[in-house]
Design brief:
The complex is a heterodimer of chains A (793) and B (447). Chain A is built from 29 helices and 18 strands. Chain A has 793 residues and is of the alpha+beta class. Chain B has 2 domains: 347 residues, Alkaline Phosphatase, subunit A; 62 residues. A 7-stranded mixed beta sheet of chain B has the order 3-6-1-11-12-2-13, with helices on both faces. In chain B, α6 runs parallel beside α9. Chain B is globular and about 60 Å long.
Chain lengths: 793, 447
């Protein structure tokens, strides 16, 4: 860090000039006073530390240099500057000047609104695509299998800039359109195809460590153990095949055939097949390799989406769920031989066989808004069907052009096929249309370049539904938009409330917003070192995910204040996770709401998922945790690390193992590293009592844990609970972090300095409502960047 | 389970789809395809990428020239030694930080086929057209698919990518334009559908009508996109031009498929999805590559065992620890042994693929005789993120343009792009410069 040391040496000689700079005819503004005293010795036009020259910024009319001053506000609010070791303002001064800057900039911004410019072409990402298909046609698709992955930017996968358009993607859209249309219309000639569901949700790989000696969750029948539960979309009434694949060892022998096991397959809770396998000596040598070939059955199923479960019955000689001597084996990850417990690797659902001509599937109910009684009325009915679909799919009134285009597809296919086949061809055309696949935003005709305008009600409807549902607007929302009523405050508020109350809002926000924000989606990719954490299995992994989902769902459903994310003393646990947290008295695999006694576990910072995704595979990383906190909780993200950062030494010169704290202290001794680590490490170190998979610990490498530290504002903390208290003292910063993330997600673009006034306005109005989710969401929806757009310059 | 429908009933095939998803399936199919008529051998190119660098002393062969001795890592390539050229001394200097700080994994992969220093950005990526795409562009008139990008990694960009770098840099090698990375596919079924269409049928009439429908869909969509472009003006020009370019590419594929609709295609059953274990997954992905070359559906393929920083564990070979942390071994011999074991494992799977390529007739020789495959990594010493000397070898006869059985040693800091530039010319794509290249190699075909 030569730059810093150089800058520090400049300090002395610049102090004099700094005072001179502050000398003006008018009384100096608080901003000028502050930066002259504390900042310009490094951030001036000659030294330009971090590219920032505060002497060049307009300190009298700060709005003229808003981009610079917004950076200053972030540093002041987070107490990040001046660096430790040089003279710093007191806390009151920090806040007073920041508030003054904010109110000056906000006043100017109110007079000249700058909503920024969202992209003209905003591709649906694959989650949005799948949700839209579900809502338009009641067809469920697996977007992971159907479409290539989406690029992420600014923390989310719905960033318009990052979402690319490429040949392989268009190819997939064409293929997907054909598959979806065929299923929506229902084709009795649909060739049978198999879909495979692995036992571990969210993972394509079934080389997993999912223990299947217990009931796996609410989706499974009582008295069962292990298995797969999946929501499967059955395209048409017909017979379907169900196959169970068993887990194999590394040398592909089926596990656990030494004991007889009963299997069953259920569709919507109703048993459709039962088998018994294992326990006796098989006549065939290949039995150990292909015994599960017999686990196949067929059953008739009605079209639509159904819950399919393949599971095993617990044998009678095993204790029922409840207390017992160490029923959870500790080392499930070591069980890889033919005598390991039997487990289901996957459920395959295939079909249809003997499909029946479709009459009344959920898809057809949505799509076929009329049925032509005779040939003469076919065209009128096709027109009605296709204009209704186009309106929903394109999220606006269907134009004549739209309908004519679709009818041409209908007619060409009708000429050689049935009415249904005509509709099917036109549905394909809808699904490859840019009007469906992209959110298109055009400047109003004749807009003055660079002028600011309010987006149309129909565009607003799409913004709203993709924000809250990750999907297309429903008819009710679209209707008020097309009638031009949506921008009316009362109507808008009512629609926001309605959308938020829908369960789709919670599930899509949890999966697409929160899991990206907190990075907890990475729980699926965790790979804790099996020698250190042999008890980390996939049941525990799934439990991390379920806890977060249930916790966030409750927060949203009960419309809690966002601060509750940090403070809540309630969570959701099952036996395994409770044990992981050192809580006794909970039995069984099902999750229930639990009041926490230990303050260290309160809120997000006590969640194993969060603690694990911010750790390395072998150890904790206070730096990553600190960085995570700064970025996600304190709205003060760190700059990127410098080049050639040396990695930590895990032992000292005498080859004695070091604790993580000691390793970091060695690292921090280097001045190049000290500047940033002084901000990150104390935050992260105060969570050191939680190990790399979120378990409480008292020692690290034989040393007692020292979780003490001093934060940048001088607050002393020791341990997770005190850290939480310290963060609460800065709860406006947390509210800011929430709002910034939510606005980034809602707009699908990165935030710029000119968005800061909108963020502050949202927080001011939400503060009066204890920062309830509903008030922050409404604030985002009512904000200028959400409702307005700058025309092309 | 690529089987002729003549031999096995449909029911069996479908049963098979469920039961044998985990097995590599191509063997049964090979004899069913008549070898193409002998003409001028087709030139084809593949890249195989090993992520996270190597244990270099396990990689480096002993002695240079024709009398070199295969290293422990490369031992598995013994049967192909006469078509193997190991190349030592190549560097990817553009992957160095050059003032951009951390991010060696992203840069290693990002610049691997471009030889430029990629822009450090989360959302506005910038690179150069990659070497494989230059070749693909030259060959695109010949085949339905100009190229394929394949990966054995997760079909998701989650997880750790280098701070400040878009995950795109570490997840694909192929760049269609400087701003358009081509995402790699991991699902055999999706690849299969791209190669053979999704008509769920191999009946020529069904396929033809499907192609006709696809073509009308795209024509109609192109019309609408042109309309939109007028409406939106020059705003978001990049997205619009990507869109139009993609439409043209897919249209071309369909046109080509129509032209070639009378061509004999293997009657194959679709793979059901991603096989359960890595071993079978990789073998199936290699089988599909072979099939794509064999049916001449594409002539350019890039394949990655995983993206940079992949944390895949390899329990099947006794390595439950994740790969990336393991490669930061800090000279710990146990960890280094495990990294070397993973190298050997990747080579062993690759050798199985080579065996099949060698056994697949193509014109007057085999597919392997006509192919050039570049195998390597953009990181040399994984522990220290060095970008040279890069572990690199070529395999295949290159239709007579390569002379194998040698270990070529170049001076340190010879740009990797010199090799790729040479290969472009060998492939019949005249080129004078690629990224930071400084010249071509004469030695690939001479002794």
């Amino acid at each position: 860090m030569t730059r810093l040391s150089r800058c520090l040496s400049w300090c002395a000689c610049f102090a004099f000039c700094a005072v001179a700079l502050g000398f003006q005819a008018n009384p100096p503004t608080p901003a000028r006073e502050l930066v002259s005293t504390y900042c310009v010795s490094c951030h001036n036009q000659r030294v330009k530390t971090a590219g920032l020259a505060l002497d060049a910024a307009d300190a009298d009319h700060v709005a003229n240099s808003a981009e610079t001053w917004e950076k200053v506000i972030v540093k002041l609010r987070s107490r990040a500057m001046p660096p430790a070791g040089v003279r710093r303002p007191d806390n009151a001064t920090y806040d007073r000047v920041a508030s003054w800057l904010e109110s000056e900039i906000d006043r100017a911004a109110a007079a000249h609104v700058n909503p920024g410019r969202t992209a003209s072409l905003h591709r649906l990402n694959r989650a949005e695509y799948a949700n839209s298909i579900r809502d338009l046609l009641a067809v469920e698709v697996d977007p992971q299998a159907m479409l290539p992955p989406d690029e992420q930017a600014f923390g989310f996968e719905n960033n318009a800039e990052a979402l690319s358009i490429q040949p392989a993607l268009l190819d997939r859209y064409v293929t997907a359109a054909a598959a979806v249309a065929r299923r929506a219309v229902g084709d009795p000639n649909l060739p049978p195809a198999f879909v495979r569901y692995g036992a571990l949700k969210g993972s394509a790989n079934d080389q997993n460590y999912l223990r299947q000696t217990e009931r796996l969750g609410e989706d499974f029948p009582l008295g069962s153990k292990g298995g797969v539960a999946a929501r499967h979309y059955f395209p048409i009434d017909g017979e379907y095949a169900f196959k169970i694949r068993l887990q194999r060892t590394w040398d592909i022998q089926i596990k656990g055939l030494n004991v007889p096991t009963q299997f069953e397959i259920r569709v919507d809770g109703k048993r459709v097949a039962q088998f018994t396998l294992g326990g006796e000596k098989s006549p065939l040598k290949t039995f150990i390799y292909d015994a599960d070939d017999v686990l196949e059955a067929r059953a008739p199923v009605k079209a639509g989406s159904h819950e399919v479960v393949a599971t095993m019955l617990k044998s009678d000689d095993v204790l029922p769920e409840g207390p017992g001597p160490d029923r959870l084996s500790l080392y499930s990850r070591n069980a890889d031989n033919a005598n390991s417990p039997i487990a289901i690797a996957a459920l395959l659902v295939g079909g249809p066989y003997r499909a029946q001509a479709p009459l009344d599937s959920p898809s057809r109910k949505l799509l076929f808004v009329c049925h032509p009684p005779n040939a003469a009325e076919e065209l009128a009915c096709a027109t009605k069907i296709l204009s209704t679909l186009a309106r929903r799919a394109y999220r606006r009134s269907a134009t004549d052009d739209d309908v004519q285009t679709l009818l041409a597809f209908y007619q060409r296919a009708r000429a050689t096929g049935t009415f249904d086949e005509g509709i099917r061809a036109a549905v394909e055309r809808v699904l490859v249309s840019p009007d469906f696949l992209f959110r298109i935003q055009a400047d109003p005709p004749g807009a003055t370049p660079g002028s600011v305008y309010r987006i149309s009600d129909v565009e607003l409807a799409s913004r709203l539904s993709f924000f809250l549902w990750s999907s297309v607007p429903d008819d009710a929302l679209l209707d008020v938009a097309i009638r031009g009523k949506l921008h009316e405050p009362a109507v808008l508020e009512q629609q926001v409330a309605r959308l938020l109350a829908d369960p789709r809002a919670r599930s899509s926000l949890i999966q697409n917003f929160f899991e990206d924000w907190f990075e907890t989606r990475n729980v699926w990719l965790l790979n804790p070192d099996s020698t250190r954490f042999p008890w980390f299995d996939d049941n525990l992994r799934s439990a991390f995910v379920t806890e977060m989902e249930l916790f966030l769902d409750a927060q949203l459903k009960e419309d809690r204040g966002v601060i509750d994310l940090l403070t809540s003393n309630e969570t959701f646990l099952n036996e395994q996770l409770a044990r992981h947290y050192g809580i006794s008295g909970l039995y069984g695999s099902h999750f229930r709401r639990v009041k926490l006694a230990d303050e260290n576990r309160f809120g997000l910072l006590g969640k194993a998922g969060v603690l694990a995704v911010t750790s390395y595979t072998t150890r904790t990383s206070p730096t990553i945790r600190g960085k995570w906190l700064l970025e996600n909780i304190l709205a003060a993200p760190m700059p990127a690390p410098p080049a050639n950062v040396p990695s930590l030494e895990s032992s000292n010169k005498e080859n004695k193992p070091l604790s993580v704290r000691e390793m970091l202290e060695m690292h921090r001794a280097s001045p190049a590293c000290a500047g940033c680590h002084a901000r990150m490490d104390p935050l992260g170190l105060s969570l050191e009592n939680f190990d790399a998979i979120g378990q409480w610990r008292a020692t690290d490498a034989g040393h007692p844990i020292d979780a003490s530290g001093v934060l940048l504002d001088g607050t002393k903390v020791d341990g997770p609970s005190q850290l939480r208290q310290a963060l609460l003292a800065q709860k406006t910063q947390f509210a800011k972090a929430v709002t910034e993330k939510l606005l980034t997600y809602a707009l699908g673009r990165g935030l710029e300095y000119y968005d800061a006034p909108a963020v502050r306005a949202i927080d001011r109005s939400a503060e009066a409502n204890d920062y309830r989710w509903s008030s922050i969401v409404l604030g985002v929806v009512k904000s200028a960047p959400f409702q307005m757009r700058t025309a092309r310059p | 389970m690529f089987v002729t429908k003549k031999a096995i009933s449909r029911r069996t095939v479908l049963r098979g789809m469920g039961a044998t998803v985990a097995l590599p399936l191509l063997d049964a199919m090979i004899p069913a395809l008549a070898p193409a008529a002998a003409t001028t051998p087709v030139r084809r190119f593949g890249v195989v990428y090993h992520p996270n660098g190597v244990i270099y002393d396990q990689w480096l062969p002993k002695a240079a020239g024709a009398n070199f001795e295969l290293s422990p890592t490369l031992k598995g390539l013994e049967p192909f030694k006469n078509q193997l050229i190991v190349i030592t001394g190549l560097f990817s200097d553009q992957a160095e930080a050059n003032g951009d700080g951390g991010g060696d994994h992203s840069r290693a992969c990002g610049s691997y086929l471009t030889g430029v220093h990629v822009k450090k950005s989360d959302s506005n990526v910038e690179n150069a057209v990659s070497m494989d795409q230059i070749a693909a562009k030259a060959f695109e008139r010949e085949t339905q698919l100009s190229s394929l990008q394949i990966t054995a990694d997760e079909n998701s960009l989650l997880g750790s990518c280098d701070l400040g770098y878009s995950c795109a840099y570490s997840s694909t090698l192929s760049w269609l334009t400087p701003t358009l990375p081509l995402m790699a596919e991991n699902n055999p079924r999706v690849l299969f559908e791209r190669m053979f269409g999704s008509s769920d049928s191999t009946d020529p009439r069904v396929r033809a009508s499907r192609l006709q429908q696809d073509r009308s869909l795209l024509d109609s969509v192109s019309e609408r996109v042109n309309q939109l472009q007028r409406q939106l003006g020059s705003a978001d020009n990049r997205k619009m031009s990507d869109y139009l370019a993609s439409l043209r590419d897919v249209e071309r594929r369909i046109q080509k498929a129509e032209e070639q609709s009378s061509k004999e295609l293997p009657e194959v059953a679709q793979p059901a999805g991603i096989p359960a274990d890595f071993d079978s997954h990789v073998r199936l992905l290699y089988d599909l590559q072979l099939l794509a070359y064999q049916a001449d559906l594409t002539r350019v393929i890039t394949f990655m065992y995983g993206r940079e920083q992949t944390a895949r564990p390899y329990p099947q070979i006794g390595i439950p620890e994740p790969h990336h942390p393991l490669t930061h071994h800090q000279q710990n011999p146990e960890k280094m042994d495990k990294c070397a074991k993973i190298q050997r494992y990747h080579i062993a799977l690759f050798a199985q693929y080579l065996e099949k390529l060698r056994n697949t007739p193509d014109g007057d020789g085999s597919l392997l005789d006509h192919l050039i495959i570049q195998f390597g990594s953009g990181i040399s010493n994984s522990d220290r993120h060095t970008h040279g000397p890069l572990p690199t070898f070529l395999v295949g006869g290159g239709a007579g343009t390569l002379k194998g059985g040698r270990h070529l040693v170049y001076p340190e800091h010879t740009p990797l792009t010199n090799l790729q530039l040479t290969l472009l010319n060998k492939l019949g794509v005249p080129s004078e410069k690629l990224g930071d290249s400084t010249g071509q190699f004469r030695e690939l075909s001479e002794v």
